[in-house]
Amino acid sequence: HPQRPPKLTMSGFSVLLAACALLVWSNVHAEPVTYNETEALEFVYYSQVAFCSRRAIESWSCGHFCDHTRAERGKIRFIPQGAIEGVQGYVAQVAEKKCIVSFRGSISVQNWLADFKLHLLPWPPSDTDRGNASWC
Prior knowledge:
The protein is of the alpha+beta class. The protein has 5 helices and 3 strands, in the order ααααβββα.
């Protein structure tokens, strides 16, 4: 029997997202950036926070994931699930003039369809309650 390729679990998907975030981050800097295991794991935790509830994200109390990351209190904005695509995430200030944007991984057909769409929008959106997140 031929072996089937391993399934990509949410943990595997989170590691993949973290690696992509690190790759994008390294391309933004002019100087070369080397892989840092501690930093990569921190991005995995940030990606896992996006699976938490609104209350847990806004109070940065997601347990293990929030315990191993940092976010400025009062500078965390939850992005609720949309009615059409069901995507949720958050934006949080993690250091002076640095923010993290994280979206929950795909958990439904709606999410998988949304993965193939790309919309570039200005931040912060002025027509929502998130317009006061000018710190990012």
